[in-house]
Design brief:
Blueprint (H helix, E strand, L loop, with lengths): L5 H9 L3 H11 L42 H17 L5 H4 L2 H17 L3 E4 L7 E5 L6 H11 L6 E5 L10 H14 L4 E3 L7 H6 L2 H9 L3 H14 L3 E4 L3 E4 L37 H6 L15 H7 L1 E2 L5 E3 L7 E3 L1 H10 L4 E4 L4 H4 L12 E7 L2 E6 L19 E6 L8 E5 L34
Parallel strand pairs: 1-5, 2-3, 3-4, 6-10, 7-9, 10-12
Antiparallel strand pairs: 2-13, 5-6, 8-9, 11-12, 13-14
Helix pairs in contact: 3-7, 5-7, 5-10, 9-10
Length: 460
């Protein structure tokens, strides 16, 4: 005989599910952000001047029956994530974005990304085209939403190149990354997502993204995290905008000697690889770049496949020459002479890289700070090297009361040659919704220095 009474059973059957409760709350309360750029008010009387309400987002988000995304679907996704960040506990994210929809989106995006070359060509440009280049985002969802509204959504004539570091540190890395994947699926020839050093197993396990995903998706969290890692592996490394502009997360890369073929005999099958001595380092070619194997969870810092690590982790220097990046333990440092050599050799005029926020730049004598979201690091005969950072008031979580209060920025490249950068700086959207960090920000270093290389998985 059951211990439950008929009344208890009936009450349980009539009780609304978590998704139903979310839907009811959504219907009752308008979201805080409308579809217009003016709704995102950067640092202006914040709490006393709330954003005007917009149309209610529709949740839970469903996958289109025909499998084709639309502008309306993406706009709703952005509204749902914004609303959820302000009104729901992180563990309730599956109620508005079910894991089945996540699977469909990541599968579609991964199929597109894995087919792209290591250096994607953004060359379908016409006299009406513009190209928007975006730097580090680091899970700052609301600043990303403002940026997209401010720059104008991607379209057939408005191209976007994102330079990586979508996740970690900020509380909404997953939502930020999913929004960008949706844009990629919708407009695969107008939106280009490059890999950053934080799109890796090591960084996401240290700086919060893994814990964020496990928290938000609970018993499905490991599945969601694995799918994200697989998608990270497919992200291209660099882009070429038109004929004259090279973009990458970290920057330049070395030439790597050809790997010797293995002997067919039983003896001497093991190959001892000696990394190129620093005194003989030289800049690599685009042919070498496109032959590099990018499908590694953590780009190796030793062995023969060094180009992915260089592209993702390297930094400019004011000191001439090309040398190992001893501060980070992976990648390179390159001086103004190397910038000139690279630009001249490949007939380029501009390098746009990211990778360094205000915390990292504070420790880099001779290079500009990140107060305005960008710095012009090298001005040489053939052109310029620019560092671009798109996460304002970074990092979101900080152990000290004194903050950098940096602006974020994006760059617009315009015809005819798309080599004259127009900078757009913006302040952080305030107030940010209250959130708990997903990593121990008081103990973890801020600028990715002194990496625990032993814990990074090496891939030959």
């Amino acid at each position: 005989m059951s211990s439950n009474s008929d009344a208890e059973i009936a009450a349980a059957a009539a009780a609304p599910s978590a998704s139903q409760e979310v839907a009811e709350v959504l219907a009752a309360a308008p979201p805080p952000v409308s579809d217009s750029a003016s709704s995102a008010v950067p640092n202006s009387e914040s709490e006393n001047n709330p954003s005007p309400p917009g149309p209610n987002p529709e949740a839970p988000v469903g996958w289109p029956a025909d499998g084709k995304l639309s502008l309306e679907w993406i706009r709703n996704l952005m509204s749902v994530f914004d609303w959820a960040s302000r009104n729901l506990d992180p563990t309730q994210l599956p109620d508005v974005f079910p894991v089945e929809v996540f699977d469909s989106l990541v599968l579609c995006a991964s199929k597109i990304l894995h087919k792209e070359s290591n250096c994607v060509a953004v060359d379908q440009l016409g006299p009406e085209s513009t190209v928007v280049v975006v730097g580090d985002l680091h899970g700052q969802l609301h600043d990303l939403l403002f940026l997209l509204n401010d720059a104008g959504f991607p379209s057939e004539n408005r191209f976007f190149v994102f330079n990586g570091d979508y996740v970690d540190r900020g509380a909404w890395g997953l939502e930020s990354f999913l929004i960008l994947l949706a844009w990629k699926v919708f407009l695969p020839r107008s939106v280009y997502l490059l890999r950053g050093n934080h799109e890796s197993k090591y960084c996401t396990s240290v700086y919060g993204f893994e814990k964020e995903v496990l928290t938000k998706y609970g018993d499905k969290g490991k599945h969601v995290y694995r799918k994200c890692l697989g998608c990270f592996e497919g992200l291209p490394l660099t882009s070429m905008v038109g004929k004259y502009v090279y973009t990458a997360h970290g920057g330049l890369f070395r030439s790597t000697p050809a790997t010797p073929k293995r002997s067919k005999g039983k003896k001497n099958r093991r190959i001892a690889f000696n990394p190129e001595p620093s005194s003989t380092l030289s800049l690599g070619s685009f042919e070498e770049l496109n032959k590099a194997r990018r499908s590694v969870l953590d780009p190796p810092w030793e062995g023969s496949n060094l180009i992915p690590g260089d592209v993702l982790w390297s930094d400019p220097s004011m000191k001439p020459g090309l040398s190992p990046n001893k501060e980070r333990g992976i990648g390179l440092l390159w001086g103004p002479d190397c910038t000139e050599d690279f630009l001249k050799k490949f007939q380029l005029k501009l390098i746009i890289r990211s990778h360094e926020g205000p915390d990292a730049r504070e420790k880099r004598p001779g290079l500009g700070g990140m107060d305005n979201g960008y710095t012009i690091d090298h001005i040489v005969e053939s052109g310029k090297l620019i560092t671009l950072f798109s996460a304002p008031d970074y990092p979101q979580f900080q152990g000290t009361e004194e903050r950098y209060r940096n602006k974020g920025a994006y760059i617009v490249l315009e015809p005819p040659n798309f080599d004259n950068p127009v900078f757009h700086s913006f302040e952080a959207i305030t107030p940010r919704p209250k959130a708990n960090p997903f990593y121990n920000f008081e103990e973890v270093i801020d600028s990715d220095e002194e990496l625990d290389l032993a814990s990074m998985a090496t891939s030959p």
